[in-house]
Every structure is written in structure tokens, then in C-alpha cells.
Amino acid sequence: MPSFQSLIDSCRDDWNRYIQHDFVQQLGKGTLAKSCFQHYLKQDYLFLIQFSRAWGLAVYKSHDIFEIRQALAGLKAIVDVELDLHIQYCKQWGISIQELDNLPEAKANIAYTRYMLDAGQQGDLLDLHIALAPCLIGYGMLANWIQEQSWYQAHNNPYLSWIEMYTGDEFHAAMQTEINWINQRLANIDSQRFEQLVKIFTNATRLEADFWQMGLDKSY
To answer: What range(s) does the Thiaminase-2/PQQC domain occupy (predicted)?
Structure first.
């Protein structure tokens, strides 16, 4: 019976390149250049805007009131809560709302977010969730991975609050809810359908890794 873990196992090398990217390791060691993190934060603001569109698409792709409410909750969480929190967090790193509102969108950001939206538009609700999964679930997994490493440096790490956000109970509860949702829908699919989902998941995972590299390179 396929599961979310089966998706990871089907693209293990790509998954590890994402989870264990140099950007992630430098975060955990506290050695990441401030300018790289600032570039990531700026682009992540633009990412969240597109992410909210993806949840709007999830509302449209839903088939019953339970799915509609779940997708709407995700949309409202981003629009009403997460974007404001991100803006406040950016202020702590010297990034103003005026700067955020006038940012050019990096190519890696465009590639990743438009791929998610395209996967959802061409497919069904499950396709969309699989495209979102490397972000929705992967951030919690990579934050856990950081804390498990012998080189992890919590003391005086300027990125500690970021790491702890994704190892916190609230994020992990949401992550587990998403894993359970995906597992329930993978339970009854055939091998051909699973391979289609593996392709979406693998592509999204690679694009997540490119997003980290964009942060390191400070590229547009």
C-alpha cells in the first residue's frame, strides 16, 4: 500500500538533496550569511502569495464540504495570519513592507510556484496536495533533521527561531494532518496513478532544492 513515505523512497536522492541542502546545513550551524537569509525571506514572501493562490485552487478542486472547509482554512491561515507574521519577521531582519511589495520575483520562485499551480490545474486535488507536500511536510522534516545532527548549533544561532518554528508542536500537528490526508488517498490508487504522483512529487522536491540554492546564490 503506497504512502507518503513511499513517495520519499521513490526519489530518495532528490529528497536528501532538498532536506540536506547546504542552505539548510548552514542554517543549522548558524553560519549562513545574513544576506542569503534575507534574500530567502524576501522571496518567501512572494512564495506565500502564490501559495495562497494554490489553496484557493484547492477550494475550487474540492468535491465536498469537508474538503472545501479544509482548503479554505489553509487559505485563510496564509492570508490572515502567515503573511502578517512573515512581514513582522522580515522587519526583524531589516526588510520593510515597501521593499517586499516591490520585489522582483526570482526565476526559481516562478518555476516552483507556477509548477505547483499547474499541477493542480491539470490534475485533481490529490495532485495539488502532492505538489505542495515538499513544502507543507518537508520543512518539518528538515528542521527535525537539523536538530538530530551532531553539528547542530542552537547556542547564539541567529536562525534558531526559524528552526524552532518548524519543529514546534503547531507546525508538526499540521504536518501530521497533511500526511494522514495524503496516506488516506494513496491507499486505494493503482501503480500507474502512483507513478504519476511520484513524478509530481519528485519535480516539486527538485524545485524546493532550487529555492534553497537561489537563497545561497542570491539570484534572481
So the answer is: 11-217
Q: Of 6, 2, 19, 74, which is closest to residue 205 (Cα–Cα)?
A: 19
Q: What three-state secondary structure class fits 219?
A: coil
Residues with catalytic roles: 135, 208
User: To 5 degrees, how large is the angle CA 21–CA 27–CA 31?
Assistant: 110
pTM across the whole model: 0.91
Mean pLDDT of the chain: 94
Amino acid sitting at position 179: I
The top-level CATH class assigned to 4-41+107-217 is mainly alpha
How far is the C-alpha of 200 from the C-alpha of 128, rounded, in Å? Answer: 9
Supply the Cα-derived Rg of the chain in whole angstroms: 17
Structure-block grid coordinates of residue 29 = 550551524
Q: Which of 136, 199, 185 has the alpha carbon at shortest distance from 1?
A: 185
The 10s digit of each residue's pLDDT in 89-112 is 999 999 999 999 999 999 999 999
Torsion angle of C-alpha atoms 35, 46, 131, 137, degrees rounded to 10? 60
Between residues 25 and 79, the one the model is more confident about: 25
**CA-to-CA distance for 82 and 75, rounded, in angstroms?**
10
| Other CB atoms within 10 Å distance of the CB of residue 129 | 24
Exposure letters 39-73 (e unless 16+ CB within 10 A, then b): bbbbbbbbbbebbbbbbbbbbebbeeeeeeebbee
| Phi and psi angles of residue 62, each rounded to the nearest 5 degrees, phi first | -70, 155
